[in-house]
Design goal:
By secondary structure, the protein is mostly helical. 79% of the residues lie in helices and 0% in strands. The N and C termini lie far apart (101 Å). Keywords: Membrane, Transmembrane, Transmembrane helix.
Length: 316
């Protein structure tokens, strides 16, 4: 039993209509991803090489994901227009969609697991996030293999339903853990100073917002996959990898500049160390903080000496 009456829908509308809408959202998010990638490479030139390569890899994987989806719909709806057998069967192009999605989501979730480790310096939570991320990726790639093995989705999709359930629940679990740990850690490491606490609050709000979007999409995907037979879940499946990649680039592009960190560093060293763990530049900012502090002490000493001399002249 589904939410939509299938008797009034044409053969291509049942699943491919939702695919088409999902592809449109996918392309829109890909455009945002390209802009964010350009901003990242132009702003954060001091980031480590591996991070720049990682961002490039995610962008290329995102593009391939969109190409596979668009090619499948073009082949099915345009090249094979009016061919009901083509509409009823999946091809290797559609099988590549869950595979690329699983790889992109795995990459982003592993990055967030590494970020949790850099912040907390504890292995338990990152290992747990990695376990769910890896199980989700394996289930996603297995789903891709099953789509290729059982191409008649209308009658054979039940054969790989348990795998899809493992895929989506693992992704949701990894998102919940990483978001919860980041929020918990940041809230418990505030400095009590207004300026640095405002920075931490901003990071917390951003973390919750990005994690909530992916969580909602993955939950809707799983819910409609289990309860609806019209293919409505594909509306959420097609663009979901772009939400993960955009959340990655948003977190990287929202970092504070070196100047902002240096100005705030004198207020709370402990809080700024927490914020520094979210940055991945080559240079070491604590050395700059020490140098600035030494100059301030020197200036204060000179000022004190000058006041002493002035008092001596007044006595004379």
């Amino acid at each position: 039993m589904g939410f939509i009456d299938l008797s009034h829908l044409g053969p291509a509308e049942i699943a491919h209509g939702w695919m088409f809408i999902g592809l449109a959202i996918n392309i829109l998010l890909l455009g945002i991803m390209v802009i964010q990638t350009y901003l990242y490479y132009s702003r954060y030139t001091n980031d480590r090489l591996w991070l720049k390569v990682f961002v490039g890899f995610v962008l290329v994987a995102d593009m391939l994901n969109t190409v596979f989806e668009a090619a499948y719909l073009y082949e099915t709806l345009i090249v094979n227009f009016g061919n009901l057998d083509a509409v009823a069967k999946a091809t290797w192009l559609l099988a590549c969609e869950p595979a690329t999605t699983a790889i992109i989501v795995l990459s982003v979730q592993l990055f967030f697991a590494w970020r949790v480790f850099m912040l907390t310096q504890r292995r338990l939570w990152p290992v747990l996030i990695m376990a769910f991320a890896l199980s989700g990726a394996v289930a996603g790639i297995t789903s891709a293999v099953n789509v290729f093995r059982f191409p008649v989705l209308a009658t054979q999709s039940h054969k790989f339903k348990p795998v899809v359930v493992v895929w989506m629940t693992s992704e949701v679990a990894a998102d919940m853990i990483s978001t919860s740990i980041l929020v918990w850690y940041l809230r418990n490491h505030k400095s009590g100073l207004e300026r640095t606490d405002q920075i931490v609050d901003k990071i917390i709000r951003f973390t919750v917002q990005t994690g909530l979007i992916t969580f909602i999409f993955a939950s809707f995907h799983l819910g409609f996959f289990l309860s609806d037979q019209s293919g409505l879940h594909l509306l959420f499946n097609f663009p979901i990898c772009k939400l993960y990649s955009n959340s990655l680039l948003s977190s990287l592009n929202s970092r504070f500049s070196s100047k902002s960190r240096n100005n705030a560093g004198s207020e709370s060293e402990g809080c700024m160390k927490t914020i520094e763990a979210l940055n991945f530049e080559h240079h070491s900012t604590p050395e700059v903080h020490v140098q600035v502090e030494s100059y301030e002490l020197h200036d204060r000493k000179v000022l004190a000496d000058s006041k002493t001399h002035q008092s001596e002249w007044s006595v004379v």
